[in-house]
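Components:
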Amino acid sequence: MLSYFIKRVLAFIPTLIAASMLIFLFIHLIPGDPAAVLLGDTATPEDIAALTRELGLDEPIWRQYIHWFGGVIQGDLGQSLFFKTPVLSVIADGAETSLLLALMTMTWIVIFGVPIGILSATHHGTWIDQLTSGFAIFFASIPTFWLGLYLILFFAVGLGWFPSSGFPSISDDGGWRNLRYLLLPSLTLAAPNAALIIRLVRSSMLDVAKEDHVRTAKAKGLSPAKIAIKHVFRNALIAVAAAFGFTFAALISEAVVTETVFSLPGVGRLVVQSILRRDYPVIQGVILIIVLLYLSINLIVDLAYGWLDPRVSLQ
Amino acid sequence: MIDAIKNRAISIRRVFAGRKVAALGAIWLCIVLVAAVFAPWVAPFDPLEIDPVARLTEPGAPYLFGTDHFGRDTFSRALHGARMAILIGVGSVLIALILGGLVGMLSAYFTKLGHVLMRAVDVLMAFPALLLALVLMTLLERSVANTIIVIGLVYAATTSRILFGMTLKLKNDVFIDAARCSGAGHFSLLFRHILPNLLSPLLVQATFIFAFAQLQAAALDFLGLGLPPEVPSWGNMLSEERIYITRAPWLLLFPGLLIIFSVFSVNLVGDAMRDSLDPRFKDDIAGV
Amino acid sequence: MALLEVENLEIAVAGQSEWLPVVEDCSFSVDNNQTLGIVGESGCGKSLTAMAIMGLLEQSQVNITNGKIWLDGENLLDMSAGDRRRIMGDTMSMIFQEPMTSLNPVYRIGDQIVEALRQHRKMTSAEYRTRALQLLEMVNIPDFQQRINSYPHQLSGGQRQRVMIAMALSCDPKLLIADEPTTALDVTVQNEVLELMLDLQRRTGTAIILISHDMGVIAQTCDEVAVMYRGRIIESSTTAGLFANVLHPYTRGLLNSIPAIDSETEWLDAIPGRVPMLEEKLSGCAFHPRCSYSQPKCADTLPAALSIGESHLVRCHFAGELEL
Amino acid sequence: MSEPLLDVQGLKVYFSNPATRLFSAHDAIKAVDGVSFQIAPGEVLSLVGESGCGKTTVGRVLTRLEKATAGRVSFSGHDMLDMSQHEFRPLRRHIQMIFQDPFASLNPRLTIEQTLQEPLMIHKLAHNRAEARRLVVDMLEKVGMGADVLGRFPHEFSGGQRQRIGIARAMIVKPQLIIADEPVSALDVSIQAQVLNLLKRLQAESGVAMLFISHDLAVVRHISNRIAVMHEGRIVELAQKTRLFEQPEHDYTQRLLKAIPRIPTSLGA
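Structure:
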């Protein structure tokens, strides 16, 4: 188990470094001069040249990268051109919203995805299966922003049950009740991803159900429900866990859109706004953090995989 | 055993036998295709023609789907949008499959090359799909070609990993050893023995990429980083009119439903095809 | 009445457009302390027969269309699914061909061995553990004290099959069905596993049905033999009786096809042709197209089961008349 | 014994153990651990042993599907292991292989004709399609199949028929050595007998030498001239077949022979 763990971590670090190089390179290939953007329309060429030198933008790109990455390691992601504050604090401002949104969404995904997936698999071939599978594929086919817009139209604008946009921090007035701001966004975000989990649980369970050891379990006289949970679902979890990283990536992607639709002050919207504002240090920083998070999730998934499947960790 | 020896080619009859909904999906896709091809002749209005008098008209005659806030005919724009949908779908699928397919196959076949290439793919895969597309789009100008290239590249990474896995499995098949003993060279092994056995799973993968590409392109349009705003695509129609949703709720309904029906149909067809695949490759396919 | 009596069993599988018969008019019985061998080539219906007795047929694909299966005087086919499950793993149990895949990879073998016991007998956890250890010791697993905590992939093929046997015996079944239990094993291991099964039978009196394609295994292990071809038992007898006096041309052909281990011949006397596919409709005796003694009558009429001597049944029009 | 066609000396094949690769690079699985034998032209030598004894790996090294760790293999005077892929090409034709699993050894996407034509074209034994087809049909006839199978795909055939096609593919280039890796163990008894007869007849007619790899001692006794018993990567006993069966010397051989279930020979036969 330990060597499996170390192997995974060792594979993680070079990927992260390479990804950081790629991010840095991308951002520097973007047309437009950051110094000019920073100083605005009234700047003279001399001012721009001075600032370029000051920001170190005239140095070779690899030196700029080392300088930047050196800062990153010490927790310094640079200064936002737009907010004129440290990038890290800009990101931290959006973190609460995004993390709460992600947690709520994951809750929906598990609550809806897993039981419906099991139901679909255990009723394989019946109308229940066809109906749930059909709905799952349908929900995975809806553009998130479209679903969000109509949810706002019906439940916020029409019925007035929920707020339509924004999210005051839970430390503000209202406290935890402020979570109702996240209800529609999290449901919007959960819909396509829960659909994926339903499909995944279903197909993995159907695969496991064909394996010989399930027949052994039947021959022991176990009830169908016991077989479905203890033998089929338990083993299917291995495949589900392995695909969890993929789901998380889809979640991040769709969070960018969802936060924009619901005007949530989260990290996802920050990405889009920073791109539109050409706030390079923030784009760089946010993407690096997201990649770090995504790779960490994948690492955790790998470890969970080793824990769920004794064949992986105990060679 | 009998199952394992059946020829694994995808036949239309087997795919749609007993799957009426998937067959309906296929029919819908044909309609979209016809609309795309004949849009300029079928559309009752010029999709770009502005008519300030007819702004935000409700659906009915002569504006079947109503008009937008410029007074442009939504139905005509939707027909031309089908063109964009097909163009983006087919274009990104081709890029993803050809580029990703080659990288994946060669990486699995030539182990040392694979070590390098697949590490590079790992790095690309460290970015969630839409995020990678966003960053790439920022680098490039907003245009149809660039959107296709970016979406194609994003899914090329996924495809290469899938093909890598499938080729690895096939590479260890006995018939590959047998071909090697017959004296077959690398080229023949790759393109005569391995590739034809991957065509069916590739076709299934293509349908799912097609579906993902639609949603991805719509999301990019929505964020203002996809197709140029003047291009009549379903995504742009949604993006431009979204502030009028309270005044004219139907405005977003039609383009939205068109996207949903098309993506749903492609997913259904892909799902039906996946069921008739070689079970070994089923798990490799990334889709709904 | 014997412990298990199978009467006119008929099984059909779902074909392209219709149900195809795979087992027809199959009758046999087996009693305590007895081992019945069912032998035949792939597709002859021997495994399906075993699965039908055990109750493991996949209803949508395979159907029992006729017949009765009496266990202890009760017809299993009349029982509800729940009643059936109370017998499965308790009164009768099964060992499968693939020891590599027949165990669940994510549970420790100790837990898997007593799973049937947990289902059918109420005991304390300490008692379950004691029983698991006892069973592992009984099937000669080395270091069973440690092995009880192993996962299946940590065991060799032979050891896994021993675990399967321990599992099948956990509730002291009256009937044990072993479907090709040694086919995936090496000869030396095969020998040990077969010895183990017979040894356990001597101690517990369990009735055993051994399904195999290997005449040698059957000859060495069983008291009685039934030879199946294309869904029917074409010859059955005591083992000694069968090998002393082979009456069906197919049984003879099968025996002649096996190269001898203790002598040398230039050519094997192979049966021509191949086993007909399920979809192929055959009239008369199913073996007639491959039979060198075939007469016009063989293609027309299905031979009835002729009783020759004591407990020797043959389905051949010319049983006893041929120089085999 | 005449000049050997194949001379294997001290062959070793080690695989690195993936489970321990991270910390100890030297921990290797010794699949084949110093194996030496010779095969004369036209001779049938069998490698017999239980699963994991390394017999299959020996066969795969001789067809260069696997790399050897150490040792020398000379095939009609050529040192085979040191050759580059390119230098080996002309020899490849003369060392052909028959595989165990008839369901996996034929490319499901190629017709029987395409499969059988491939080696002819590669080794330039036929110069056009018509000539190739004639040779393919001749070969098919030798394995008991007709020209009607040319355009059909592998899934249309039973295991026995596929194995005949596999044999045809190996024999069609007129090799000097055939490596048959468990060629009949996936087949039913009655089909196994047919294929064994076929192999024996083709071998006798063409005079090709054969390395017959099997776990089945009865089959091995039937087909070979000499037999090598492998155990844990080494050959523990190598003798003329009758001698090996009548007077087995090594402990392991004796154990193996004792373990085989015997069929009582009836009086009727």
